[in-house]
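Cross-check.
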Amino acid sequence: MNKYMKAWMQAATAAEQEELASRIGSSRNYLYHLAGGFRAASPELARAIESATHEMHSERLPLVFRTDLSPACAGCDFAKQCLGKTATRN
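Predicted model, tokenized:
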């Protein structure tokens, strides 16, 4: 399970989930796979989700970082340098 993506999906309306899927060129079903931990995002998809969720961020919709979604990003020294403690919040 990916607790950050799951929290985002639970907070988002169906329309917001569809909007995120559209922004990243994916589907709601795939977002559920990511949230459930059945899939891990590629670094490219993780970057796209990070960007889109930051654009859609509100008090209700939490932030999702690329390091939350992709093992490659979580292990990346550059991501750790850029994101600081956020990079290792898992």
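Residues 43-56 form the longest helix (14 residues). DSSP finds seven helices and no strands in the chain. Passed to J.P. for a second look.
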